[in-house]
Write a structure and sequence with these properties.
The complex is a heterodimer.
Chain A lengths: L16 E6 L2 E7 L14 H23 L7 E12 L8 E12 L2 E10 L2 E13 L6
Antiparallel strand pairs in A: 1-2, 2-4, 3-6, 4-5, 5-6
Chain B lengths: L5 H11 L27 H15 L8 H4 L3 H11 L1
Helix pairs in contact in B: 1-2, 1-4
The chains are: A alpha+beta, B mainly alpha.
C-alpha cells in the first residue's frame, strides 16, 4: 500500500495509488475491497466519495509541494470546505475508483481544486474541494 | 462597457457567501471593511471564493499579491474590476 502525505490510514484511507500527475492535475486510484473486516458495505456511500476526493486533493497538494516547492517543510493540505457536490452513482465492492483532482486557484493560504470520481468510465461524483495549506492540527 | 457598481459587487458577495440570511443589503456598507473584527469578519476561505466569483462574473483576475488592497471594501473591488475589464 502506497503512503501519501496525509494522516489517514486503513480502513479510512480511500487512496490506493497515485496513477498520474501532470502539472496541476493528478489521478489517484482506490481499489474498493471485496471483503473488509472494518466495513460491511454493499455499496460505497456518496459521502465517502466526497471523502476520497478530499483525501486526493490534500494528498496531491502535499505531493505537489514536495516536488515543486520542496523546502524541507512538513506541509500538507487540510480540508477546509467542500462545495457543489454532485453524485450520480455508487461503486460496489471490487470496483476501482478513479479519483481526479485539478488545482484551479490559490489565494493566500487557500487552494481550490476540482474533484471527480469515475467508476468504469462513468462520472460517479464531483465537487469543489477547498484545502488550506498547513500541517494537520497545526498552524498554517 | 458599463461600469460595475459597488452595489453589484455587494450582490455578488452576498450571493457567493450566502449572506442573505444574515444581512439586509443596506447593512453592508459600500466602503466598510470586509475582513477583520471591525468589518464583516470574512476569512481566507471567503477571499478565495470571492476571487473565483469575480473572475467568473466579470473575467477579471485578482492576484493574491494585491488581494489585501482589492478586498478592502466593496468599492475597492468595483474599482479593480472597472480598471481591469
Amino acid at each position: 500500500m502506497a503512503t501519501f502525505p496525509i494522516p489517514h490510514r486503513e480502513p479510512f484511507l480511500f487512496l490506493s495509488r497515485l496513477e498520474a500527475r501532470d502539472g496541476d492535475e493528478a489521478i489517484f486510484a482506490y481499489d474498493m475491497p471485496r471483503h473488509s473486516d472494518s466495513f460491511s458495505l454493499k455499496m460505497f456511500p456518496s459521502l465517502l466519495m466526497v471523502e476520497a476526493m478530499a483525501q486526493a486533493a490534500a494528498a496531491f497538494h502535499g505531493v505537489r509541494l514536495a516536488e515543486d516547492e520542496g523546502d524541507g517543510k512538513e506541509e500538507t493540505g487540510v480540508l477546509a470546505s467542500v462545495d457543489k457536490v454532485r453524485t450520480s452513482g455508487r461503486p460496489r465492492p471490487g470496483d476501482t475508483l478513479t479519483i481526479k483532482v485539478k488545482r484551479r486557484k490559490q489565494f493566500g493560504p487557500m487552494v481550490l481544486l476540482d474533484g471527480e470520481v469515475w467508476v468504469s468510465h462513468r462520472l460517479a461524483a464531483s465537487a469543489e474541494i477547498y484545502v488550506r495549506r498547513g500541517a494537520p492540527g497545526g498552524a498554517a | 462597457m458599463s461600469q460595475v457598481t459597488a452595489e453589484q459587487v455587494r450582490e455578488l458577495v452576498m450571493e457567493t457567501l450566502n449572506l442573505h440570511e444574515e444581512y439586509e443589503p443596506e447593512e453592508i456598507e459600500l466602503d466598510g471593511s470586509l475582513f477583520g473584527d471591525d468589518g464583516l469578519g470574512l476569512d481566507s476561505l471567503d477571499a478565495l471564493q470571492l476571487a473565483v466569483a469575480v473572475e467568473e462574473q466579470w473575467s477579471v483576475t485578482i492576484d493574491e499579491s494585491i488581494g489585501e488592497t482589492v478586498f478592502r471594501s466593496l468599492k475597492t473591488i468595483a474599482d479593480h474590476v472597472n480598471a481591469n475589464r
